[in-house]
Structure formats: structure tokens, C-alpha cells
Design goal:
5 helices; 20% strand; 5 strands; five-stranded parallel sheet; single chain
């Protein structure tokens, strides 16, 4: 896997039940790869557009340089778990720097963040709350590691 995987997410709350579920997957992933979780919380005057822009600026300012950025975006490209595992393996082989996944808040991602990303990943056309999207992402990263290492976790479709 890459030297570091990082999940950067924006939101107004860090709710304990979601954090507990995400920590379970982080602890599994840590056996095989370095992973960090970075919460972006901003206070902004001027309403929702100003907050989304401020969240985007904070996300971009906190990125390691260089990094391979992947945004979660329903307009992005969907992948099977096997394809996702293959992509992470390829990046691990070719890219020695952090791979960063960016998840927007309840307002979504600022368009500048989406524009600067190297990849737009979709979990399908449905919209997920940022807390659920983060949990699904952690599970898919763990699944990708298991596929790559031949660990009996993933089962192919019948």
C-alpha cells in the first residue's frame, strides 16, 4: 500500500457512533498500511456557500505535498471492489507519496477541490451522508487490502 492513506472529511459534527465504526476499520487497516483521519470543521459567516468554500480551502491547505487526491463525488467513476483494489495496488507501486481521499460535508465539496482532484470516485448515483460515505470508504479500503493480500474477507459475486 501507499506510504500513507489519509481520509480528509468536512462536517459540523464528529458523532461517537460513526467514529467507533470507523475506528474499527482503521485498526484493521493499520495492520497493513498507515492511515490517518483528518476532520475539517470550519466556522464561516455568510451562509452555506461561504462555509462550503471555507471547507474546501481548509481541505486544500491541509493536503500533504505531493499527494494523490481522490474525491468522493456521485458524478465520478464507479468501480467494483476488485477494480478499486487494483487501482490502490497500482498507486502503491507507482506513487510513493500519500493517497488522500476527500469527503465533503452535508454541503458537498467545493468545486475547486473537485477540480484539483486527480480522481473522482463514486459509490453510485445516490447521495450518502458524509458520515456514512466515510464508513463505506473505510470498509472498501480494508476490502481492497484483503483482495490484494488474499485475506479471506472479500467474496466475489456468485
Amino acid at each position: 500500500m501507499a506510504r500513507e492513506l489519509r481520509i480528509v472529511w468536512a462536517g459540523r459534527h464528529q458523532r461517537k457512533p460513526w467514529e467507533t465504526l470507523c475506528e474499527d476499520y482503521r485498526s484493521r487497516i493499520r495492520r497493513y498500511a498507515s492511515i490517518r483521519d483528518q476532520w475539517i470543521k470550519v466556522r464561516s459567516k455568510g451562509g452555506d456557500p461561504a462555509r462550503r468554500k471555507a471547507e474546501g480551502e481548509a481541505m486544500l491547505a491541509g493536503l500533504p505535498d505531493p499527494s494523490w487526491t481522490i474525491v468522493l463525488d456521485p458524478r465520478g467513476k464507479a468501480s467494483s471492489s476488485e477494480q478499486f483494489a487494483s487501482e490502490l495496488r497500482r498507486l502503491a507501486d507507482e506513487w510513493p507519496h500519500p493517497i488522500v481521499f476527500l469527503i465533503g460535508s452535508d454541503l458537498g465539496l467545493d468545486e475547486e477541490v473537485v477540480r484539483q482532484a486527480r480522481r473522482r470516485l463514486s459509490f453510485g448515483p445516490m447521495i450518502f451522508g458524509h458520515e456514512l460515505a466515510r464508513l463505506v470508504l473505510y470498509e472498501q479500503i480494508y476490502r481492497a487490502i484483503c483482495i490484494d493480500r488474499g485475506i479471506k474477507y472479500h467474496r466475489s459475486a456468485f
